[in-house]
Amino acid sequence: MSTPSSSPAKPVVVLRPAPQRTDRIFTPAALDSLRDRFTVVDLEKDPAEEALEEVLPDAFAIVGQPDLPAERLAAAGKLRALLNVEGNFFPNVDYATCFERGIHVLGCGPAYAQAVAEYSLALALDLARGISREDRAFRAGQERYVSDGNADAVLLHGSDVGLVGFGNLGRSLNRLLAPFRPTLRVYDPWLPPDVLREHGVLPASLDETLTRSRFVFVLATATDDSLHLIGERELALLPDGARLVLVSRAPVVDYPALLDHVARGRLLAGIDVWPNEPVAADDPARDLDGLVLSAHRAGGIPQAFQAIGDMVLDDLTLLAQGLPPVRMQSAARELVGRYRNRPVS
Amino acid sequence: MSTPSSSPAKPVVVLRPAPQRTDRIFTPAALDSLRDRFTVVDLEKDPAEEALEEVLPDAFAIVGQPDLPAERLAAAGKLRALLNVEGNFFPNVDYATCFERGIHVLGCGPAYAQAVAEYSLALALDLARGISREDRAFRAGQERYVSDGNADAVLLHGSDVGLVGFGNLGRSLNRLLAPFRPTLRVYDPWLPPDVLREHGVLPASLDETLTRSRFVFVLATATDDSLHLIGERELALLPDGARLVLVSRAPVVDYPALLDHVARGRLLAGIDVWPNEPVAADDPARDLDGLVLSAHRAGGIPQAFQAIGDMVLDDLTLLAQGLPPVRMQSAARELVGRYRNRPVS
Amino acid sequence: MSTPSSSPAKPVVVLRPAPQRTDRIFTPAALDSLRDRFTVVDLEKDPAEEALEEVLPDAFAIVGQPDLPAERLAAAGKLRALLNVEGNFFPNVDYATCFERGIHVLGCGPAYAQAVAEYSLALALDLARGISREDRAFRAGQERYVSDGNADAVLLHGSDVGLVGFGNLGRSLNRLLAPFRPTLRVYDPWLPPDVLREHGVLPASLDETLTRSRFVFVLATATDDSLHLIGERELALLPDGARLVLVSRAPVVDYPALLDHVARGRLLAGIDVWPNEPVAADDPARDLDGLVLSAHRAGGIPQAFQAIGDMVLDDLTLLAQGLPPVRMQSAARELVGRYRNRPVS
Amino acid sequence: MSTPSSSPAKPVVVLRPAPQRTDRIFTPAALDSLRDRFTVVDLEKDPAEEALEEVLPDAFAIVGQPDLPAERLAAAGKLRALLNVEGNFFPNVDYATCFERGIHVLGCGPAYAQAVAEYSLALALDLARGISREDRAFRAGQERYVSDGNADAVLLHGSDVGLVGFGNLGRSLNRLLAPFRPTLRVYDPWLPPDVLREHGVLPASLDETLTRSRFVFVLATATDDSLHLIGERELALLPDGARLVLVSRAPVVDYPALLDHVARGRLLAGIDVWPNEPVAADDPARDLDGLVLSAHRAGGIPQAFQAIGDMVLDDLTLLAQGLPPVRMQSAARELVGRYRNRPVS
Fold first, then answer.
1. Which of C147, C295, C345 sits opposite D144 (nearest CB)?
2. Measuring CA to CA, which residue among D61, D38, D41, D62 is closest to residue D51?
3. CB distance B338 to B224 below 8 Å
4. What is residue C273's DSSP assignment?
5. Residue C65: which of C18, C14, C112, C11 has the closest Cα?
6. Min distance C260 CA to chain B CA atoms (Å)
7. Can you give the pLDDT at residue B342?
8. Cα radius of gyration (chain D)
9. Are A297 and B131 in contact (CB under 8 A)?
10. Do B195 and C326 touch, CB atoms closer than 8 A?
11. What would the 3-class secondary structure string for A257-273 be?
């Protein structure tokens, strides 16, 4: 069934997934299918720039996020798609040329959305009920039974919930929140209000979202505009006892200000992303009772990684049939240059 | 606002909520409404048996769970309803006489269902992603970033989930689980399969439920039949790496056997109810990394308590209008004698 | 496999389903199971009162709605359940005695709920889009293409919808309406507002429900209180162009007033129940373009009838095991005497 | 309110909506907003080619579907978006140049999806229950009461349902069908199976979809590949008594074969699109009892038209801010040349 790799008919797919790993994103079965349908040039073990440059003229698609300035793209005359498997778009690609040439620029963000949404809900429910705090107390022999440990416990059901940002992650989270029947306010300056209404949520300003929400999920990506979007002024808008979940990008929040509110007992927070990772050994956050501490774990789970490989395989297969990709996310030419993310190491 | 007790028109409602408390289940507004619509005889501060016996002949309804043997019921000729606000039915009431006389026997279980369902989901998500375990590691300076701490992390989405028991709690939990699109198997020997199918879940035997589920929620109430329903044999059926959530009644599970599976790393478990509460200071459970420890906190939160008062007020109001109660749960004459619960202290 | 009917161990179930029919409610498989588990005394073909009276002393349950005055119940000392398979409770049974004796009085209303809910939605969508009206025009060679026939066409999505009554049927319909994201107001005087809120609908007065709804579903059962609940005054509250669906009981609506509003083009209506059935040959309703005419067809479909038999079998099986019934609806002692329904012939 | 067209700061938007109409797609408020934010050049009343050509060099966006061959696009140096408000992409635009130049090619299909989905459900429920057929019988004095008219009535709940095509419409319909808990099989050769599974439906071949479905919705668009996709062989696969709903494009189905199956009583069908419109006066379809006849009315309702205008306004506003459009559908360069639709007159 499998065609020999010398067959000229099969499009050439270049694998250079670093810092992602081939064996993490492709199951053996998926990799077999990939090799079956394409001529796979695997450069994972060959980081030399020359190796990449040599194969560019034949490449139908590149899986990975290598540097692709204008001159390299010029050499890649057959290139139809660039499949980013890291999760962020960096400024190491001449995206303008890609869009001009009709090269699909695809991101793997959707592969992480469910994992991050479940994690965000887990953090919110932990903050709602004091799960990890009381587990620690129990282990220290200081557990409080029944209602004694529940003074600040609240239901998610029927509560006021705010989302800051409504991309893939916000939509996945919205689905998980639906049976809790929240009043859900969303701030997203990139979306017209009717798009939000179609998803059953209330469009709101940032201030209204913060002022009225008991639970706030910060899901905004990092751009120049979103740097410290949630600063001291915004944190002060949150009602006493509000629970804040931060799972997207650390720069969106003024970190010292947030820690201060938590230390004073005014807010509870679940934090998965940090201004500096690893976090300093003496960071005061490590001792705050009102935090749930998490080490950038929201998205990077085995099933999410494998979803990337499955999406890559599906979309490459569609592209080879002359059909548009449907699983990865097409980068918007208007946005791809705005992101200010660092690679996850 | 309150009408004097001499008004003959208003039905007499006796309050003896112990071990529950009036000010915990009734908001001031709810209590005002209650006093407005009924002649309230408040015996919370008067635990004398004589006080209760004195008011019985006039009582339209009793809010609480005092001893009501046949002779007391015989003296309560106008009694129309008994509203249990503790959560369990104890054998201190002559239920047979209640049913014969058409006295409504109502339980407040539905008031706790949402709180316990949210807590159960919180425990399951914690076990799925290691939330409290990694929070502890972070506080100890041993956090693992990104995928390093996610080796055993799994999605709830699309997973095989088993429910043991499908009463109020199971139904509430089923609603919360729906957007995760699980394959949901349910074992409940009191329900015909079509009832389960109508709720969109798969009827299954206990063994099939355990054998095929990555997440198992033990929601069964304690009866003679359910004692150690989940014993060593049953625990051994669970697949490696399964997550078990126990939030209903401790006697349903063989506790030492469960701890053994967790200690061996075969299972992860979230435990909210214990064979003996408080748990012994030297109980080995306190040190098990594979546990999330919780001190009987799933249901007793402020909003659940207030829901009890709201339900009591609503149903008393309906009963006084000659309408059937709709918010509390009518005890089934076939089941009320089967429960083997201890009061929560 | 089947035990002979002489076996003393099997409880005696009496079948007298008229005007319902055994072969309509029981599939052959269900009837086999019933005969397997019970000693079935089939009186369908034996309408003599003596036949019934003869078996009463042994009867564990009666499937049907025969006359059961006090003296007959007195003779039925082992009777545990009365399973109505017609759909309405008539005053031919001494219900008070049933409740005193703890005899379950069960109704089959839930078996019809899905069928009636789907039919109600079908009528509403027909009225929204003119399906049957334009089908008639097409057959007459007068079809209007594309937007020409759509001047009064409206979406159900996002519209204001009112339900008058929120029992089994209202709840089933609410589930079907959910993905249309309506603003759903409900008037039901037998239910406290919080019950409605728990179902995600807005409690409202009758007047508010009518005044603000583009679609109104009249689902109220017939009682002394609901006679002409929707009269001329109430119909006049409906906004111009409102669509009214009547599927419960004709006496709830002032029929001439409704026809007048439809004739004037102010309202559109789908009517399944009529003050007199069969409807007179010269009834003006037959010619009204603004009506969808239906001959009491909403509930009585083959799958609904078979659901009755399945429910009967399931609940009898539970009762024989000492468990409470869960599929049929337990009659409320407060309500069973209030219904003013006629048998469906 | 409107700024004079001399203002250089506001981007120029050309309106040439024919055969669509400006006053049908824009509410007065929407048109005011459009004129407020843009310099609107309204060519609706000026069909001369010269008028269009004159404004092209300044055009930021064109709302409509005028001919735009390469030479015209060459003259439109500032053009950023082409907003089709008719619903179909015709071969009168040099799409390749648009994609090369990064000109957004946007379609208004999503504006119709909800209207068509509701209509499709209306037709399916009519076929399930004989709504229009029995309405006709009632008007002819031949109504059949209760179960007499329900011999072939079926529930949608729990049934096997097939969708042929899963684009905007299929997704909207899938949401409406969810509370019916169908077993939903989908055939869509443009989508990988996992995309379908993510929507909770079963990927299936066309043959399996047809063979196992009681209800089939034909939602496929017209391409060379889909011509007579449902021919005699495929229709013969459908089970007896199946209900077929055709709302997308007539060429997808072999029309004489379909009518033959309906005439023989083997299938029931709701047809909204016809091989020739208007349908011939003597077309035998007009007399078939097993049809619900509809004159291309599924999508073109006032609310759908206004949704187009709202989407146009929202996306133009985003584009003017340098953000990507989110409400209309971006044409896929791989597909835009494949459609074989005729304009709706």
1. C295
2. D41
3. yes
4. -
5. C18
6. 35
7. 52
8. 22
9. no
10. yes
11. HHHHHHHCCCEEEEECC
CA A120, chain centre distance (Å): 11
- In CATH, the architecture of D112-293 is 3-Layer(aba) Sandwich (3.40)
Range B320-324 contact pairs with CB under 8 angstroms and sequence separation of 24 or more: B320/B11, B320/B37, B320/B38, B320/B60, B322/C334, B323/C190, B323/C332, B323/C334, B323/C335, B324/C332, B324/C333, B324/C334, B324/C335
- How far apart are alpha carbons C243 and C214 in whole angstroms? 6
* B301/A277 CB distance under 8 A: no
- The predicted model gives B14-39 an average pLDDT of 97
| Residues of chain A with C-beta less than 8 angstroms from the C-beta of B302 | 147, 150-151, 153-154
ipTM of the complex: 0.95
Q: Which residues of B touch C100 (CB under 8 A)?
A: 100-102
Encode burial over A26-36: b for 16+ CB neighbours within 10 A, e otherwise.
beeebbebbbe
Per DSSP, what are the bridge partners of residue B184?
A: B161
Q: List the beta strands (DSSP E) in D145-190.
A: 160-164, 183-187
Q: Taking chain A, what is the end-to-end CA distance rounded to the nearest angstrom?
A: 39
Partners of residue D190 in chain A, C-beta under 8 Å: 318, 323, 326
- Compute CA distances C177 → A165, B162, C162, whole Å: 29, 29, 11
Asked whether the beta carbons of residue B195 and residue C314 sit closer than 8 angstroms, the reply is: yes
Across the interface, of A100, A194, A323, the residue whose CB is closest to D314 is: A194
Q: Which helix (H) or strand (E) holds B53?
A: helix B49-55
- Cβ-based neighbours of D264, under 8 Å, separated by 6 or more: none
pLDDT at A125: 98
Nearest beta carbon to residue A125 from set B121, B175, B293: B121
List the one residue out of B26, B30, B113 whose CA is nearest residue B305. Answer: B26
Give domain B12-108+302-330's CATH number out of 3.40.50.720, 3.10.580.10, 3.40.50.80, 3.90.1200.10: 3.40.50.720
Percentage, residues of chain A above pLDDT 90: 86
- Which chain A residue is nearest to residue B282, measuring alpha carbons? A141
How far apart are alpha carbons D321 and A335 in whole angstroms?
11
Strands B202-203 and C59-64, by their bridges, are unpaired
Neighboring chain C residues of D287 at a CB cutoff of 8 Å: 139
Query: How many angstroms separate the CA atoms of B279 and C115, rounded?
Result: 53
Distance from the first to the final alpha carbon of chain C:
37
Query: How many other β-carbons are positioned within 10 Å of the β-carbon of residue B135?
Result: 25
Residues 6+ apart with CB under 8 A from B53: B72, B75
Contact B333 C324 (CB under 8 A): yes
Domains of chain B, by residue range, sit at: 12-108+302-330, 112-293
CA–CA separation, A301 vs A122, rounded Å?
A: 15
- Mean residue pLDDT of chain C comes to 93
Segment (H or E) for D319: helix D302-320
Quote the DSSP letter at residue D218: E
Q: Tell me the average pLDDT across D38-59.
A: 95
Mutation site for D-interface testing, chosen from A194, A197, A226 by largest number of D Cβ within 10 Å: A194
Predicted pLDDT of residue B160: 98
Residues 6+ apart with CB under 8 A from A34: A13, A26, A40, A312, A313, A316
Nearest to D150 among C132, C155, C297 (CB): C297
Among candidate residues B160, B177, B123, B87, the one with its CA nearest the CA of residue B290: B123
Q: Which range has the worst mean pLDDT, B89-93, C104-108, D295-299?
A: B89-93
Cα separation, A22 vs A42, whole angstroms: 9
Q: Which residue has the tokens 């012939």?
A: C345
**Are D305 and C132 inside 8 Å of each other by CB?**
no
pTM of the full predicted structure?
Answer: 0.95
d(CA D315, nearest CA chain C) in Å: 22
User: Angle CA(D209)–CA(D215)–CA(D219) in degrees, nearest 5?
Assistant: 70
pLDDT for D333: 86
**Gap between the Cα atoms of B176 and B155, Å rounded:** 15
